[in-house]
Amino acid sequence: EFLLEARDVHRAFGATRALRGASVEVARSEILAVMGPSGSGKSTLLHCLAGIYRPDQEEIIFDGTRVDTLSEAKRTELRRDAFGFVFQFGQLVPELTALDNVALPLLLAKTPRKQAYAQAAPWLERLGLDDHATHRSGELSGGQAQRVALARALVHRPRVLFADEPTGALDTLTGENVMNLLVNAAREEGITVVLVTHDARVAAYADREIVVRDGRALTTPSSAVA
Ligand code: ADP
Ligand code: ADP
């Protein structure tokens, strides 16, 4: 019984066949690294698994429910409630403080203000940012901003965290720091992680890795297909 599954996913962008029959299974509380060369379809697979893209042909199953056939409204609700996202660039609202950025998803989900901030503040502390809670996020360093983005992705305790090159814009040491925080938080909370990266050092934090090549997901270790 997997938490998240993609079966034979196809997705084209015009003439570009980004995914051509990719299948992947993610176990509960597993940290899965999705590796592969640039343009192989990793991001597209993540977007399909997360219900952001509707595949052309496929099945996406989350916790026993078909995701791909849900209405747009239901998929939006699922993403908001059950999924968290971190991307290469934090995509924070630069004018807002770090704390406001973390509280924002809760406020958008109509959580009462007081409760939203009470839930957001401990996450900043946990990620070592309590000193920066009232800083405008546009003034933070890259690593600090990415930790705020991580706090924002985790604040509603998602079932699955989708991370697309979360350290791609950071130097090695800062990236390691962010990955340690990400993995520790996921393990402590039992959150399942789908981590897209082309960096073997980042993939080393995962329990297991798969490789995407030409729009298909291979479970073969990367060394065997290189
Ligand atoms: P990766 O994440 O492995 O770099 P992507 O999933 O981003 O690969 O892209 C796979 C292929 O699909 C690439 O050829 C890319 O240019 C193309 N592609 C991805 N997203 C889009 C899009 N929104 N519109 C057009 N082409 C896209
Ligand atoms: P990354 O490789 O870091 O995952 P990309 O730069 O490939 O990110 O893609 C960033 C965004 O642009 C994604 O939403 C992706 O779907 C889209 N995209 C990627 N390739 C293309 C393309 N050829 N044409 C249009 N959109 C694209």
TrEMBL record:
<dbReference type="InterPro" id="IPR017871">
    <property type="entry name" value="ABC_transporter-like_CS"/>
</dbReference>
<protein>
    <submittedName>
        <fullName>ABC transporter ATP-binding protein</fullName>
    </submittedName>
</protein>
<dbReference type="Pfam" id="PF00005">
    <property type="entry name" value="ABC_tran"/>
</dbReference>
<dbReference type="InterPro" id="IPR003593">
    <property type="entry name" value="AAA+_ATPase"/>
</dbReference>
<keyword id="KW-0067">ATP-binding</keyword>
<feature type="domain" description="ABC transporter">
    <location>
        <begin position="4"/>
        <end position="226"/>
    </location>
</feature>
<keyword id="KW-0547">Nucleotide-binding</keyword>
<dbReference type="InterPro" id="IPR017911">
    <property type="entry name" value="MacB-like_ATP-bd"/>
</dbReference>
<dbReference type="InterPro" id="IPR003439">
    <property type="entry name" value="ABC_transporter-like_ATP-bd"/>
</dbReference>
<dbReference type="InterPro" id="IPR015854">
    <property type="entry name" value="ABC_transpr_LolD-like"/>
</dbReference>
<dbReference type="GO" id="GO:0005524">
    <property type="term" value="F:ATP binding"/>
</dbReference>
<dbReference type="InterPro" id="IPR027417">
    <property type="entry name" value="P-loop_NTPase"/>
</dbReference>
<keyword id="KW-0813">Transport</keyword>
